[in-house]
Amino acid sequence: MEIAVAIIAAISGILLIVAEALQTAKSDGFSVVTGMDSSRFQAGTREYMLERVARYSAVVWLLACVIYAYLWYHGR
Asked: In 3D, which of 59, 47, 60, 38 has the Cα closest to residue 19?
């Protein structure tokens, strides 16, 4: 079980790194933080897809790391 969770964590971590590396720089200033300029993240665009991939792979990576730590701590 530990090995499967570790593999999931590794794959989602690699996917997260690749998705972040492929995203374009977001240097729109404060409008990015407030969400005023939403034209960049419209459904169907490459940036929107990469943002979703990064978000979901980050959640999977975090959960897999927590589960792996729990299994490792209680398995010894």
From this structure: 47
The structure tokens 């570790």 sit at: 6
* Mean pLDDT within 29-37: 56
Model confidence, pTM: 0.75
Residue 42: φ, ψ to 5°: -80, 150
Q: How many CB atoms lie within 10 A of CB 31?
A: 12
CA distance 47 to 24: 7
Q: What is each CA distance from 25 to 7, 17, 40, 68, in whole angstroms?
A: 30, 15, 11, 33
